[in-house]
Amino acid sequence: GLASNLNIGESDISNLLLLHAQNLQDDGATEIWDTACQWLKENTNAWKSWVPDQTVCAVGKGLVDLQGNFVMQREQAVNCGVCPPGFASQKEGATRVCSPCEPGFYQNSFRASSCTACELGSIASEPGSETCRPCSLGSFANRTGQSTCHRCGAKETESAQWTTSLEVNSGSDGSSRWIQVQGASSADYCACVQGTFLFEDRCKACTEGANCPGSNQLEVLPGYFSTREAPGDVFHCRAVGHCPGGEPGTCAEGRDPSYLGCSKCLRGLRSRDDGSCGECRSSDYAVATVMLLLLVAAVALVYVGLFKEQQVRQPGPLLIAVTSITQLLTTLQILNILGSFDIPWGEPFVSILAFIELFNFNLDILSIDCVTWFDSVGEFTMRVCLLPTIMLIALFVHFGFLGISYLRAVLTKTEPRKGCRFSQLLRTVGTMLMIFFIMVFALLTEPFQCRLHPSGVWTLKGRYQSVYCDGRGEHLQMYITGALGCLIPISFLALCTWVVLVEIPKGIALVDTTVLDAYFFLIRRLRPGAEIFSMLFQV
Question: What distance in Å separates the CA atoms of residue 159 and residue 137, rounded to the nearest whole number?
C-alpha cells in the first residue's frame, strides 16, 4: 500500500522544512498541512510512485471498467477483477487482462493464469468454455485441444448411419456385445449403426439373410450365403446344411465357396447327408458302377417283362402289374416336382423327397464326384444325356436278346426267328419314355427356372444356383443344351400323335397285330376307340 511505498529522504525533509519556514516568514498563520500540500504539488515526481496503481493487476486478475466488465486496454480500466472460470489471467504490458479460453481449451476455476487443452475425445467449441464436452455418437477427437469433432464416414449425408461403439464382455461364458459410446478418441471407434455394415468405407443396409449387430461386420444367417468380395449380396442356399452362416464366404465343411450358395463340393470330395462334403470312401467308387449295372438290369427287366406280356395269351394280371408300376413311377415323379417348390416341407415328406431324388437324375446319389468332376454346364449335359443313354442301353439289350434267342435256336436245333423284332425295341423305348416323360421335361426346363435372391440378383433354381440368369456364358450354354434336349420329348409327342391318329387306326383296319404290339404302350390302359386320350394324358 501507500505506507509500504513511502520513500522520503533527508533532502526531501530539509526542503519541506525550509518551505514551511519560508511560508511562516511570509505569512505567520500558515498551517503545516498547507505547506505539505504545496510540497506535493511542486514535487509530483517524488511521491507519484508511492501511490498504488489500481490498473496494475496481479496474477489471477484482469482489467475491469466502471461497470465491472473485463476490458483488454488499460485506458478503459479503472480497477482489477478476479478472472472467473472460462478465463485466464494473461500478462499485457505492465498489467494483466482476463482473456477467454480459446476454442479447444477450458478453465473451470477462479484466478487461473492459463487454460487447459481438452483431452482426447472431447472438445470446447466456444471461446471461454468452462468445461469440455465429449464427442457425440458417430464422431471422435483424436487430438487434444480440438474445437470440433471429426465425423465418422466419408460423407456428411451418411452421418445418421454411423456411430461409435465398443465391444464389451456381456456374460460369464465369454460372449460379447457392442455398446455405443460417446467421447471416442480415434476413428477405431467408428462403426455402422445396428442394421448396417461397413463396405468400401460406407455403411450399407442389411438385407434379408444377414445380421448386422453394429460392429461394422455382416453376419450371414444359416441357409444364406455371400462372398467376401461382396458381403452385402446375399443369396439363398439350396439347403440349410450347405451354408452354416457366419462370416461372408463361409460354407459347410468341404464345400467350395467360389460357387454361389456353396452348391458344389471341392474337387475329390462327395456330398454328405448333413450338407457338408467329405473324403470319398472306397465303396463310393463302386457306387457309379453298381448303379450303371442296376440301370442295365432295370432296362433288361422292362424289356423282358414287356416281351412276356406280349407272349401271354391272357395278360390281365401282368397288365395290371405293369400299369400299377407305371402309375407308381409317375406319382413319384410328380412328388419330385412338388419337392422343387419353395415350400418348407416337414417330415416324413422331406425324407420321401430325398429318397425319390433318384428319379430326378441326381448324380450326387451316384457319388459321381468321386469318379469325375463336372461344372454346372457339364453336370446338366450329363443329366440330359442319361435318357439317350437309357435308350442306347435298350438297344444293346434288344440285340443281346436277339443274340441269345439265336444261340438258343442253334443249340436246340430249331429254326431261329427272322427279323430284328423292331416292334419289341420300339415298345421298350416307348415305355421308358412314357415312364420318365414328366421328369425329362422337368429336367430340360431347369435352365428356364430362375430365382430371385435377397441381393436382387436372379440365378437358376436348385442345384445350378451358381449360374446367373443373364442369358450369357454358362446360362446360354445350358439354354442351348436344354433346347436341344427338348427335341427328344417333343419328337416323341409328335411321333405318338401320328401313331394314334394314323398308324393305330390303320393297323386295326388291316388287323395288323405287329403295329398294335409295337405301340401297345400307348393304348395299354385304354379301351378300343379311346386311343386319343393317351396323348391328352401325356400332355
Answer: 10
441 within 8 A of 407, measured Cβ to Cβ = no
Q: What is the DSSP string of 100-119?
A: EPPTTEE--STT-SS-EEPP
Give the whole-angstrom CA distance, residue 7 versus residue 317.
Answer: 147
Question: Half-sphere exposure of 402 toward its Cβ, with a 13 Å CA cutoff?
Answer: 15
Q: Which residues contact 538 (CB under 8 A, 6 or more apart)?
A: 434, 437, 493, 496
Largest CA distance in the chain: 189
Gap between the Cα atoms of 7 and 138, Å rounded: 67
Q: Could you tell me which residues are beta bridge partners of residue 116?
A: 106
Q: Which residue reads 465369454 in cell numbers? A: 174
Cell numbers for 64: 475491469
- If we measure between CA atoms, which residue out of 464, 499, 492, 457 comes closest to residue 478? 464
Give the number of C-alpha atoms closer than 13 A to the C-alpha of residue 365, restricted to the C-beta side. 13
Of the candidates 116, 185, 181, the residue with the CA atom closest to the CA atom of residue 149: 185
C-beta contacts of 196-202 below 8 A and 24+ residues apart: 196/161, 197/231, 197/232, 199/231, 199/232, 201/153, 201/154, 202/153, 202/154, 202/155, 202/158
Q: What is the pLDDT of residues 318-365, one digit of tens each?
A: 556 666 666 676 676 667 666 666 666 667 666 666 666 655 556 666
Tell me: the pLDDT tens digits for 72-127? 998 899 999 999 999 999 999 889 999 999 999 999 999 999 999 999 999 999 99
Q: Is the pTM of this model over 0.70?
A: no
Distance between CA atoms of residues 312 and 324, nearest Å:
18
Place of cell 439289350: 397
Quick one: pLDDT band at residue 141, thresholds 50, 70, 90? Answer: very high
| Spatial separation of the C-alpha atoms in residues 171 and 37, rounded to whole Å | 88
Sign for the CA dihedral angle at 428, 434, 439, 445 comes to positive
Rounded Cα distance between 156 and 138, Å, is 11
